[in-house]
Every structure is written in structure tokens, then in C-alpha cells.
# Entry
Amino acid sequence: MTWITRTGLAKPSRILRPPGPRLQAAVEAFPMDGNGGWPTTATAVVLTRVGDPSEKTLNNSPQLNIDETPAKAPITTLESLREHLQWAIELEHATLPPYLCALYSLDPQRNPDAVQAVSGVFVEEMLHLALAANLLNAVGGQPVLDAPHMLPVHPRALPHGDRSMQLSLLPFGPDALEMFLRLEQPALPDAGPEGDDYETIGQFYDAIEQGLRHLCAELGEQKVFSGDPARQVTAGPFGHTSGKLTAVTDLASALAAMQEIVEQGEGTERGAVWDSDQDVFHPERHEVSHYYRFLELKLGRRYQPGDTPQTGPTGEPVVVDPEGIYPMRPNPRLEDHPVGDPIRSVQTQFNQAYCTLLQQLEQTFNGVPQALGASMGTMYMLKGKAQSLLQTLDGDENTAGPTFQYVTPELRS
# Structure
């Protein structure tokens, strides 16, 4: 990341616990310099997979004989499949509060590059949430979003994932980028499917793919995909991405939906820079996957056609102005302020609106598609409340921020 500052490069502080063993090699491939700062050149991880190139998994990388590869906590029943697809909804939702806090903290006039990257990732995570709901509906499940367990206190772990991956509410900056890179990290070549305690998101969806293939072979597609097609959502406010929200009705469309999710996160092949969608901001090229978008911000350059993980980004500079970032207090909570305090009052209003959004999304995915339109108005309300908080001092050095705490329906205004 190229930081505009009067005193030189900003140095990050490390707040996250170490990654799991299979990710350590990838993390070490992007070392800090001797002074604890960011590297000045891009050192890349080469992630390749072996196998017959004609056989493709959901992320379009060479097949790892996924039907035969032993999975951690394999999915062998329809009940387990539905449970894991609800976890997929919870996983995709868990990414939203951290991305929103980073986005809200950015002044779009002074940090257009970072706003473009984070807002694009947020919109695609909303798309992934909708695709996960379509997957669950397709196999006869019922998506749940408006529930207390969707909003535990931050920092928090990914739902049923590796406990070392902690999500925090942070302003944009080095700590937030480290968290996002860990979240979107591609799986290493020898990493098998993991249904529970998954180390990477790709491995989690590999386990769901394996379960779907197994159950379709055992029970037949018609019994597996028993959901009401009318509950499929195929339209949404996804104007900052060329990704597609498609109906899921059979194994092929289910694999395509998961391929969309995994490719946008880690690339068309594990370790590849690009996903298969066209970049809406740079139509001359394919879209950079989430992991490599955050590397662009960290390393201070864009990827351009011809770049690979080995070369690193060699395109135009990406500039971040730290003076254009609101210094939000990390992981704020309502309990930080007494009842009646103006900051707590606005945080409560934000939480009421956010839980209303969850309610509207749950209705959308459970047979009331018109609720999706109402949710857009709620999103604008959230942005206004967040901007009010981020522009309010909370102590000598920090500003206030949203807390993303659950509010029961009867207490929502």
C-alpha cells in the first residue's frame, strides 16, 4: 500500500493470531521488512494443483478426486447438507460487518481506490449470501438470518471455522487488510475438503460439493433438489459486480453457484489472480479476485493483464491517504457508553436498522421477494447512521462506530 504521509510509511500492528499450519507458508511468502513495515516488492505464493486438467472442481481448478478425498466432517445426509448450507449463509454474512466498518471509515473523495475495492467486495459478499440462500432453498431448507447467533460480540470467529480466524470491527488500514487477506486466503494445493473447523472458505465449499455429489449419487438429484423453485431469488442490487445471481435447481446449477462464490474470493484457480467475471470498473480485463484486490491495496499497485501470483502486481499505483480514514474505535460496544449517551443512542438506532435488514433478507429468501426492495432503503439508513457515528469523537483519538449487536423484533423502532 502506498500511504500518503508526512512522516513516511505507516507501520502496521499485528493483532491476529497465527494462521493454521497449511496457511503458514502462504503468509510467510509476504514477509514484513526488517523494520516491521510493508514489503516494497511483491513476493508471491505459487499455488498449483495436480490432476487431469479436463476435470474441474467448483473453482475451475484441476480435480483432486474430490469424491474420493477423505473430508474433515464429511456431509453424508440431507440434514447435514442443509445444516452446512445454513452455515454457508452465516459465513457469508459474518464478512459483512467488518467490510462495512472498513468502508464506512473511508473518505471516498480522498481514498477512491480503497472505496472501489472494499465496496466491490462487499457487494459480492451480498451476492454470495444470496447464492447460499438459493442453495439451501434448492435442497429443501429454510434460510435463517434474523437470529441472535448471527451477531455475536466482536471479535468473533467464522461460523464453525478455524478459531484462529477472528473477525473484528476495524477502520480501514493495515490491521483490517491483514484480516481480509486471512479471510480470503486461497487453500493450499494439498488442502482437502473441510466441513467443520475449516481453515479456508474454499475448503468449506469443497466439502459441500463433495456432499452434494455423494447425495446425488446415492439418492438421485430429484430427491436432493426438492425445494420450491419459486423461492429462488434471481434479481438483486449488485451493480458493482458482473457476478450473477442465478437460480439453483439441480447439481449443475448448484456447482455453478459455488464456483461463482469461490472464484470471486480466491480466483479461477487457487493462486490465480483473476476470477472469470469482467471487471465493471476496468472492462478491458477480468476481475481481480478478493484476495488479490486486497494485495493490490497492501502492495500499492494494481494487477494488469499478464500479471501472475509470481510477478505480483506491476500496474498503476494504488494510493491510500491515511488522513482520509476516520480513526474508528476498534470493536465498539453499546456498553462503552451509558444509557442516554448520544453515541449509544445512534449505535442503538444503527443496530435496530441492521436487524431490520436481516429480517427483510430472511423474508426475501423465504418466499417474499418484494422485501428485497425494502432492504435497499434500510441500507441507505444504515449508511447515514454510520456516517454520523464515524464523524463523532469518542475519546481523544478515536471516533465512534457501529457495534452490530442484535436487537429483538419488539425493540426495533
Q: What stands out?
A: The two ends are 42 Å apart (CA to CA). Confidence is low (pLDDT under 50) at residues 2-56, 59-67. The chain is about 40% helix and 5% strand. The longest strand covers residues 274-278.
